[in-house]
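User: structure tokens for this one?
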Amino acid sequence: MCGRYVIKTPPGLMQETFGYAEQPNFPPRYNVAPTQPIPVVRLDNGRRSFALVRWGLIPAWVKDPRGFSLLINARAESALDKPAFRNAMRRRRCLVPADGFYEWKQDGARRRPFYAAAKSLVAFAGVWEPWIGPNGEEMETACIITTAANRTLRPLHDRMPAVVPPQAFDLWLDCAKVDAETAAALLVPAPEDTFVAHEVSTAVNRAANDSAALIEPVPPGAAEPEPKKVAPAKSKANDAQGSLF
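Assistant:
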């Protein structure tokens, strides 16, 4: 799965990589967490566009998000069929820029965090949905699609984000010309050399922590005790969609 990730590529290089017209300016983020606004790239009138959407997809048919499970990931194997993702797969596919993501490896009673660093900026496959509440409140939401882990990352977890290669960006984004079944063929494990993983500090466990120190390798043998669990803050569906940056 993918529950935390990193965006540290400079804005200008990100714009150049994805080819959108907007010029957002933002600092790096080293611990992007669910319910926060995240950057996505999607098509708007046939052109690539940058947007901020809430991480945690809410299907349009949901009446009250407070009673609906937080959907931060969709499984590639079932995204075409599950009601929560089916319409988005056909009509609203997007790219989620990322420089890497975190995964936790179970080690007895401990869960050790690892950072899977991409060798260069990558695009996770994503889908998005607009949601309109009963009182007219509006929110755009998204989730990241996962697939089976490649051999490099399988020792950490059996899932990883599906990565869309640059030559397939248009294939994934163009929902008008490319059907969902064709696009779904892209949802395969990334090549073995896409990510390199190393263990990091348990400081990443707390979403409030956000600094470059989080992705630094933990020295060999420097095991850390499991920190006390911090209850996540409750999110409200009608919260203003603030800036990720």
